[in-house]
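User: Please run a holo structure prediction.
Assistant: Happy to. Please share the sequence and the ligand.
User: Here you go; the ligand is S-adenosyl-L-homocysteine.
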Amino acid sequence: MKQAVDLPGLSKAEVVSFLETIGEPAYRGRQVFAGLQHRRLRSFDEMSDLPTQLRARLNEVARASTLTIESRYVSSDGTRRYLMKTHDNLPVETVFIPEERRDTICFSSQSGCPLQCTFCLTAQLGLLRSLTPAEIVEQIIIALNDAYGVGVKPPRGTNLVAMGAGEPFLNLDALLQALRVMADKDGLFIVPNRVTVSTAGVVPKIRELAKVPERPHLAISLAAPTDELRNELMPINKKWPLAELLSACKDFERTLKPGERFTFEYVMLAGVNDSPEQARQLANLLNRHSLRAKVNLIPHNPAEPLPYRPSSEDTVEEFKSILESKGIHTYVRRPRGRDIFAACGQLAARHSTLLEPQTIGA
Ligand code: SAH
């Protein structure tokens, strides 16, 4: 038997042609697409506008969902973390972050991660595999359904960040396919302008993204102002050192729309990369490449057994004021969902020990 096709990863036009291959007219394809992406249904049996026979046929040749929800944790600050499993039993994690004016969904691009950043817990899993477009789209559908009810229109805008597990630029084609699917106004209608993709610095892919017409925003994880330290913290730096990374960023900057900026993320590790001298080095590095970027300082989130502590608030403030005195826009990212291990660098398929998991049906 041919392998079942995962419909949540297909665009409207692709769903229509798939339905045509089983002898169905185009409007049936549009109905199925709306069932999956607008009504956010996770099985063909719930698509009551389709004839029973067609639902049965679809169950034979396609899948309306592939991920199952293992557990859900709700933080005291409202952040929700979902631990899901792929059909082949690999962990996928997604975080839903409610904010006053919008919600942010932090999704994973891979199960585990092949990069070996020393401060990130996900690194300890190694790469299990890259996720498919369907698995990326489903994470968003699951989070929205859980937060608001199946198919209920979110009351606020939804922003997406590819900052969960994995290196998105090592799975760029699947990611861009997922973004095309999600942008459809007859579906989730989350356009690339609401999406930010974060990379540890896969230089050729930064250049590739620069050429994509409808592209998401870019964030770069920096974590160190010198090659010496960055080689240690983020081994990917040995392949693409800072000079190459920042020159690719410069090329990317030339393609920004007026007013658009990209972001550098800088995780703050006490006594490792947070001194005033390192703040000056960072500012000089960015200014030397005359980059119009802003910097997000992320206090390190505790992630045992990693040997780091977060920088103190005063240290973070001083670091920020040094950057600002040198003309660099700097923000401090408030950690969300630390109590449920949902914060940056804490995703490693771990069950929370602080809270009883609230298990929900898949
Ligand atoms: N691989 C991509 C996507 C992951 S984004 C990337 O590296 O950009 C995850 C972000 O969280 C990165 O900016 C990383 O620097 C940051 N991070 C990782 N571990 C962290 C930790 N323990 N505390 C705070 N931030 C962390």
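Residues 253 and 291 are 7 Å apart (CA to CA).
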